Amino acid sequence: MNIRNPISKIASPRDHNRRAYWYLGGYWLLLVLATHWPNPWPPGKGLRYPDKLVHFTAYTVLALLVVPVISRVTSGNKLRFRIALVFSWLAVAAFGLLDETTQPLTGRDFELLDLLADSMGAACGLALGCVWFRDRAKARASD
């Protein structure tokens, strides 16, 4: 009789790889849909909407989800990981630019400050991701 450990099957590295890609892809799709939905808060009516904070937070989360993907792609090579971080920031910032330039098609406005918030959020998310996943890797190694 072959007895397997169910926990090892649940938390296998292969599953972590898939989950990282699924989380990133799912969040990216959600972000595209959310930013291209017609604006539910028309300017000048009702409560003030914290637009820049929302942009900053959304792109922080997007960049945070990029970190485990690039750490798996670079396979622990520190130089390749750092280069991938720079290209990831450029890619997320470029996505922010694409996002802002296509928003007028859905009745929203292009704003340079939104793009700045997107880019700053991307940098913050990558930095947080590096710290978060480095500390988690150290904790796993000590177990």
3D structure, described in words:
By secondary structure, the protein is an all-alpha fold. The chain has a domain of 93 residues. 76% of the residues lie in helices and 0% in strands. The longest helix is centred in the C-terminal third of the chain and has 31 residues.
Structural class: mainly alpha
Largest sheet: none
Number of helices: 5
SSE string? HHHHH
Indicate the proportion of strand residues.
Answer: under 5%
Radius of gyration: 18 Å
Alpha-carbon distance between the two ends: 29 Å
Q: Regions with pLDDT < 50 over 5+ consecutive residues?
A: 7-11
How many beta-strand elements? Answer: 0
Rounded average pLDDT: 82
Overall shape: it is elongated
Chain-wise SSE layout:
Layout: H1 6-10, H2 13-36, H3 51-74, H4 78-102, H5 112-142
Helix pairs in contact: 2-3, 3-4, 3-5, 4-5
Write a concise synopsis of the structure shown.
With 143 residues, the protein is mostly helical. It has 5 helices and no strands.
Protein traits:
elongated, 5 helices, 143 residues, mainly alpha
